[in-house]
């Protein structure tokens, strides 16, 4: 397993071939780190890519053309070795291709290219999913970067905030113990009001696991220090995203996760083709999306 570095006068980025994972965002001058360190006592990952599914499948399986397949939560890409295919002064690209191993659990030939570009204090993450097969391909993809929170040792996480590019109250879908979206017609939707446009990160915010925010409510999320200054901003065009920290662990990080897809609902009875928020690409076509991480 090899590591790779992109560096400019502002930031130094470190990557691994394993999962094509961004493993560190470090201020070049001060040495301050912004990403989680993968301490397994809380969570052993840092910023995995979620592919070819996001979240959990109902009953850990899906149906396609009359056959049943199983996939682990968030798919397999995060646990596979990518190849570094291109490296320039300000960018690098990784490639994962389908194999006999992947075709057993996901019957679509594909190429997945992950490209990282560094521009001053912004990291651009681009996904390209290429359908190299002959049939329409169905998939989801998402990011899962974990940012230190608190960012300063003297601070408490409960004094930090999220801010968004809209001050409208947040309509949240919550997940069950099985990692599925809870849909109960007798229950009103969960609404999280903002305080002066901010969502406090109190100690109970993630007691029920991830917060799933659907329907293009926001396209930019920032983490703010106790004095309400942003130190990380994640911007995206994705129609939904997740906010997460390990349940009831008081973990010193939070995740801001742009998604093109999500876990199944508790009442889902469809096939791979009909999964909510899923994507499809015809043979020979390319699906390309990106998001950015800006520091400070």
UniProtKB/TrEMBL annotation:
Database matches in InterPro entries: Aldose_1/G6P_1-epimerase, Gal_mutarotase_sf_dom, GH-type_carb-bd, LacX
Listed transmembrane segments: none
Coiled coil: none
Any single GO BP term: carbohydrate metabolic process
SUPFAM superfamilies, per the entry: Galactose mutarotase-like
One Gene Ontology MF term: isomerase activity
Pfam families named among the record's database cross-references: Aldose_epim (PF01263)
Protein name, UniProt field: Galactose mutarotase
């Amino acid at each position: 397993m090899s590591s790779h570095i992109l560096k400019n006068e502002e930031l130094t980025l470190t990557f691994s071939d394993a999962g094509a994972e961004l493993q560190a965002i470090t201020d070049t001058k001060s040495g301050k780190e912004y990403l989680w360190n993968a301490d397994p006592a809380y969570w052993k990952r840092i910023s995995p890519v979620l592919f070819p599914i996001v979240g959990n499948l109902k009953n850990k399986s899906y149906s396609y053309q009359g056959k049943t397949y199983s996939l682990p939560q968030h798919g397999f890409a995060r646990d596979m070795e990518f190849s570094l295919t291109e490296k320039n002064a300000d960018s690098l690209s990784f490639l994962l291709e389908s194999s006999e191993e992947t075709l057993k659990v996901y019957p679509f030939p594909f190429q997945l290219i992950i490209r990282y570009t560094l521009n001053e204090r912004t990291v651009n993450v681009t996904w390209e999913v290429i359908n190299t097969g002959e049939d329409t391909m169905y998939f989801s993809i998402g990011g899962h970067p974990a940012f230190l929170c608190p960012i300063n040792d003297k601070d408490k996480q409960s004094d930090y905030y999220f801010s968004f590019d809209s001050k409208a109250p947040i309509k949240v879908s919550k997940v069950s113990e099985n990692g599925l979206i809870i849909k109960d017609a007798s229950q009103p939707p969960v609404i999280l009001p903002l305080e002066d446009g901010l969502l406090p990160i109190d100690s109970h915010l993630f007691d029920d696991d991830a917060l799933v925010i659907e329907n293009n409510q926001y396209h930019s999320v920032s983490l703010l220090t106790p004095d309400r200054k942003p130190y990380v901003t994640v911007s995206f065009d994705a129609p939904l995203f997740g906010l997460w920290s390990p349940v009831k662990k008081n973990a010193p990080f939070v995740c801001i996760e742009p998604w093109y897809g999500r876990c199944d609902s508790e009442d889902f009875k469809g096939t791979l083709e009909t999964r909510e928020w899923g994507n499809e690409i015809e043979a020979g076509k390319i699906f390309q999306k990106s998001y950015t991480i800006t520091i400070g």
